[in-house]
Automatic annotation (TrEMBL):
Pfam families: Plug, TonB_dep_Rec_b-barrel
Protein name: TonB-dependent receptor
Keywords: Cell outer membrane, Ion transport, Membrane, Receptor, Signal, TonB box, Transmembrane, Transmembrane beta strand, Transport
Domain TonB-dependent receptor-like beta-barrel: 304-860
Family stated for the protein in its record: Belongs to the TonB-dependent receptor family.
Membrane topology per record: Multi-pass membrane protein
Length: 897
């Protein structure tokens, strides 16, 4: 089924599969029940502890920073075991969403640009200045950007997804939730595993680990993985593949336990990605694509799910991610102390044809570096009395640098000439709509446009051929230094057995200093067409706002009227060719280039053990995420700092005619300066939640009902060549999360998980799409369902045959609230929608000697849907997007020893 509808639509497949969902129910948070040997791990564990055979539905988690069973943990948390990851062939966090319905993960334009979303809240990671709303921690170490958390999941013991703000448990605030990846520590018994996978698209996946003692107090482990796969798509004109896999990761650990009360865990890891990504196609081909691209000899894709591409250069995606960490655990009676120190480096580079056609128009390059140091210190008690506590401190220091650019390709001037000849113009966006003029050839139309360009260059005093004839549209340098610290903790009071009252707090102080230096080399980009007319009309006497203001009022009014009239100002038409105009660098005398935030957040919770089988809880929590900085070429002064004058568009307003504002009065306004955002203010979250956790013989149920709100949610929207970062006044969501586990007979485990979300923009009057107040935020399905059925047949010899099928569904929903150009021009109509129906299956024969042989299929029914959509770059009326991955399948051989 293809899900590309632009209106309301149902899904017959959902109807067909709903019956299967009712039977074969599954949630990764329930997937722990698939094995009678459930792993119990803690931060200071020196070995893996196996639960008793009779406790098949018990799992120990550390979501609350203490060892508790999932039933006892009064937090909405889903858990995916390492065994489930193996059986479902989940290799990285991108696939984790198929078993965690409250989590959504989407890959965008590069291998390293992904977004994590929990309960409908999350921020795009296509801008390194944006701090994520969903925090990712691997072995207690915060990964500040998703690009540093995408390595293959090797030697994972479990993954905990904590829903809602978690500021009292994690020093680095996460306003929407946390993904906590827990890997296996070194063991004092020799063991390990090796795994090899071969699948379609020539997929090769190799994974292995080995662990054992060095002496009586030191144990080691080494693990790694390698993944290589052909691309799903093909760049037809270059005869190259796209959307391939080529990555590896290695990691070494030491566990040092000189005394029973002291444990030191040292981890060093390195991972690398070198891939050609990502598959892009067109949903709607606009006139500038159909006519102008063809006119300059370019080709473009038209079948969204064909996996055909036409590019003038193959994309480059290179990512290096490495670091070290040291965790020290010390206990003395009822008091334990944990220290986690980490240093990480991320190097990310990509080069991409952003017009997604074979015409040589423009290529974007980004070279990014992120260096991060973190230090966490926790003290926890385990008293026999009614009061226990956790107290922590956290320090975070990070530096980010980015060099980026947009090129001017060899076909760009002809492309612009073709569009200029057709009389095309645009309002606020750098997008041309150029159609073929009837009665002439494309070559004749380009020649006519070229003559018009040369006439404009002569009139403006530019060298002939200089407009869109250079090398670069823009060149940028971004830098960000972020330093923050926090103090956090919780106190548990148990006045009587089974009833616990918890109070928690977090105080965070966060400071960011940033630099934005930009250059727009094209000569036309540095000329305001209104001001240029006034200068020419006054024979060069007026070259500045101050000089204009010295003129008599009547003359000012006459010049302004003539400059804004297309009948008298021939320069106005040139504004259509100002793709990337000039910027104002930061810091400057008005904008200091810094943010300073501090916030006190808190938690109140009451939990009661109704019986040995049933726990209930109710909580109120607040959360916080500090300001994010718009490190993109659309970073512009706020309206409070600058008011542009009138012009052919708000993006190209006159400086001479601009009213008084701090930037204008300081005399630092650059030509064509417009308003936007430099940074988004902090997010402040609050959530009311009540929950039930119950476990009976063969049946487990977890239920959470919540009402969650984020004030000043940081909305991030692609606007053509850059990104707009704005605060929504308030976004909220009500809903519930349910997961169940049923063991009807020996060997059979059925699980069902569902998340229902009812989100709304309570207030968002200033979005780039207009006033969205009262609207439902796009991209958030009403229903997300994850189900599975696992049947294990075990022979007397100990050999097992494990059969698993799982189903993941997202209900039909708008992908977004529209596009700044395509939908805005249509009054918000023709919103694209998506629906997800994924079926995965696997079968494994596990022999009693440790050898396992199996087969798997992901997206078994080859479901097709849109990941996301965006305005075609420099192609008015075109809508492009990313399709999901097709069906993959293969065989696996694994040996554990």
């Amino acid at each position: 089924m293809r899900s590309i509808s632009s209106g309301s639509a149902g899904s017959y497949r959902f109807t067909l599969l709903a019956g299967a969902a009712a039977f074969a129910v599954a949630l990764p948070s329930a997937a722990f029940a698939q094995d009678n040997s459930v792993l119990a791990d803690s931060d200071d564990a020196d070995e893996l502890t196996l639960e008793d055979e009779g406790s098949s539905n018990v799992i120990i988690v550390t979501a609350s920073k203490r060892e508790q069973t999932l039933q006892e943990t009064p937090i909405s948390v889903s858990v995916t075991s390492g065994e489930t990851l193996e059986q479902a062939q989940i290799r990285d966090v991108l696939d984790l969403q198929t078993v965690a319905p409250s989590l959504r993960v989407s890959q965008l334009q590069t291998s390293s640009a992904s977004t994590f979303i929990i309960r409908g809240f999350g921020n795009g990671d296509n801008n390194f200045g944006i701090e994520p709303s969903v925090g990712v921690f691997i072995d207690g170490v915060f990964r500040s950007r998703s690009a540093s958390a995408l390595n293959d999941l090797a030697n994972v013991q479990r993954i905990e997804v904590l829903n809602g703000p978690q500021s009292t448990l994690f020093g680095k605030n996460a306003s929407a939730g946390v993904i906590s990846v827990v890997t296996r520590p070194p063991q004092f018994e020799f063991g390990g595993s090796v795994e090899a996978v071969y699948g379609n698209f020539n997929q090769v996946f190799l994974k292995g680990d080995i662990t054992g003692p060095i002496n009586d107090v030191i144990a080691f482990s080494v693990d790694g993985s390698y993944q290589n796969r052909d691309g799903f798509g093909e760049i037809i004109n270059l005869n190259e593949e796209i959307n391939d896999r080529n990555r590896y990761t290695v990691r070494g650990q030491l566990l040092i336990e000189p005394t029973p009360d002291l444990s030191v865990r040292l981890i060093g890891d390195y991972s690398e990605i070198d891939e050609v990504c990502c598959q892009t196609s067109n949903l709607i081909v606009g006139p500038s694509t159909a006519d102008a691209i063809t006119a300059v000899g370019g080709q473009f894709p038209s079948d969204f799910f064909s996996f055909d591409n036409f590019l003038n250069v193959a994309p480059v995606n290179e990512n290096e991610n490495y670091g070290i960490s040291a965790q020290i655990d010390w206990s003395s009676g009822p008091i334990s102390v944990t220290s986690i120190t980490a240093y990480r480096e991320l190097r990310n580079f990509f080069n991409q044809d952003i017009d997604f056609t074979s015409a040589d128009l423009s290529v974007e390059t980004r070279d990014q570096a992120v260096d991060t140091f973190t230090q966490e210190l926790r003290i926890a008690s385990d008293f026999d009395g009614p009061i226990n506590f956790l107290l922590g401190a956290y320090y975070f220091d990070e530096s980010i640098e980015q060099n980026s650019s947009l090129t001017i390709g060899e076909d760009f001037r002809d492309f612009a000439a073709f569009s200029a000849a057709s009389g095309a113009a645009f309002a606020a966006q750098p997008l041309l709509i150029g159609s073929q003029i009837p009665g002439i050839t494309a070559a004749q139309q380009i020649a006519a446009g070229e003559a018009a360009l040369q006439a404009a260059e002569a009139g403006a005093g530019f060298p002939i051929g200089s407009i869109l004839g250079g090398d670069l549209l823009s060149s940028e340098l971004f830098a960000l230094d972020n330093e923050s610290y926090s103090i956090f903790g919780t106190v548990d009071f148990e006045p009587f057995d089974g009833f616990v009252i918890t109070a928690g707090f977090n105080y965070t102080d966060d400071q960011k200093d940033f630099i934005i230096n930009t250059v727009a080399p094209d000569p036309l980009a540095n000329v305001n067409v209104v001001d240029a007319f006034i200068t020419a009309a006054t024979m060069g006497a007026v070259t500045s706002r101050d000089a204009f203001l010295t003129l008599p009022a009547a003359q000012q009014q006459g010049l302004a009227a003539a400059a804004l009239d297309p009948a008298t100002n021939p320069f106005l038409g040139l504004s259509a060719l100002q793709f990337q105009t000039g910027f104002l660098d930061v810091p400057n005398v008005v904008e200091p280039g810094e943010t300073n935030d501090d916030e006190f957040t808190y938690l109140f919770r009451a939990a009661y053990q109704v019986s040995n089988e049933v726990n209930v809880y109710a909580s109120y929590a607040t959360g916080f995420k500090a300001s994010s900085v718009n490190l993109s070429r659309d970073s512009r002064p706020t309206p409070a700092d600058f008011t542009p004058g009138p012009g052919p568009s708000a993006a190209r307003g006159s400086t001479f005619l601009a009213p008084s504002s701090p930037i204008t009065d300081a005399g630092i306004a650059t030509p064509n300066l417009s308003t936007g955002s430099r940074f988004a203010a902090p997010e402040e979250a609050e959530v009311y939640e009540i929950g039930l956790k119950a476990q009976w013989e063969g049946v487990g149920i977890n239920l959470a009902l919540f009402d969650q709100t984020i004030e000043n949610f940081q909305s991030f929207v692609f606007t053509g060549l850059g990104f707009t970062l704005l605060n929504a006044g308030q976004q909220s969501v009500r809903g519930f999360e349910l997961d169940t586990t049923i063991n009807p007979v020996d060997g059979l485990v059925l699980t069902f998980a569902a998340t229902h979300l009812d989100p709304v923009f309570d207030s968002f009057p200033n979005s780039v799409l207009g006033d969205l107040s009262g609207a439902r935020p796009g991209g958030i399905p009403s229903w997300s369902i994850a189900t599975s059925a696992t049947y294990t047949h075990e022979w007397a010899s100990g050999t097992r045959l494990i059969n698993r099928i799982d189903y993941n569904h997202e209900s039909n929903t708008d992908i977004n609230n529209g596009l700044p150009t395509f939908n805005f021009a249509r009054g918000g109509t023709e919103i694209f929608r998506r629906e997800v129906n994924l079926v995965n299956a696997s079968v494994t024969l596990a022999l009693n000697n440790g050898l396992e042989v199996g087969a798997f299929a992901r997206n078994l029914l080859d479901d097709e849907y849109i990941l996301t959509v965006f305005d075609g770059v420099a192609q008015g009326g075109t809508v492009s997007g990313y399709p999901n991955a097709p069906r993959t399948y293969g065989g696996v051989v694994r040996f554990k020893f």
